[in-house]
Amino acid sequence: MSISRKTAVGGLMLALAVILPRVVHLVGAADLGRILLPMHIPVLLSGFIVGPVFGLAIGALSPVLSYLLSGMPAPDRLVFMVFELAGYGFMSGLLYQSFKLCKTRYGTAVSLVGAMVFGRLVYALALFAAADLLNISKIKPAAVIDAVTAGIIGIVIQIILIPAVIYLLKKSRVIDSFVFQDKSGGVTEDLAAGEKGRADEQNHD
């Protein structure tokens, strides 16, 4: 996919990453964002659709832009979310596109789980690095566990929603046009491989 198309899709994902948390906060309680994790969904999807580099950039920019426009997330969480979401966008794209898991039957699920684990590891490392640099003794491993448990509903939503969205995008060949096009805009042999993989899935079903 051309840089211009990636930029357009990336801009859409970035806008969604800013708008969704705002909508959640407007209709719910103040802590609903930590529970539903609405910003995570467009960031994870961006890696699947436009790859690891754009996914990383969208993940890093989303909380910063959201903070500048709405004051959310809180300043004490902003830096950690930049690292965490950058990890989500990067790893989902790396696994799904760069490592070609898009051509495997369970590639979407593996890429999603891998990205979710990686992002939380990055979050933990950023948290402990900040504690060490700033000599803040109150930051403990329990803080990472609390962040995960607080967002368990959001994690479940991601596990259900993101594979469904990717399935629909593949069904409509939107994903194929992004992942399997060469620089000249022609369809590569990987597209045929993707078609064969979907046919095999249908035969198994």
Q: Quick gist of this model?
A:
80% of the residues lie in helices and 0% in strands. It has helices at residues 3-27, 32-36, 40-50, 52-70, 75-98, 107-134, 141-150, 152-171, 174-179, 189-204.
Describe this structure as you would to a colleague.
This protein has a single domain (3-199), classed as Arp2/3 complex 21 kDa subunit ARPC3 (Orthogonal Bundle), CATH 1.10.1760.20. It is built from ten helices and no strands. The chain has helices spanning 3-27, 32-36, 40-50, 52-70, 75-98, 107-134, 141-150, 152-171, 174-179, 189-204. Helix 1 (3-27) packs antiparallel against helix 3 (40-50). The two termini are 31 Å apart. Residues 182-192 have low confidence and may be disordered.
Topology summary:
Blueprint: H1 3-27, H2 32-36, H3 40-50, H4 52-70, H5 75-98, H6 107-134, H7 141-150, H8 152-171, H9 174-179, H10 189-204
Order of helices and strands: HHHHHHHHHH
Reported for the largest beta sheet, the result is: none
- Name of the CATH architecture: Orthogonal Bundle
Q: State the CATH topology.
A: Arp2/3 complex 21 kDa subunit ARPC3
- DSSP helix fraction: over 70%
Low-confidence stretches: 182-192
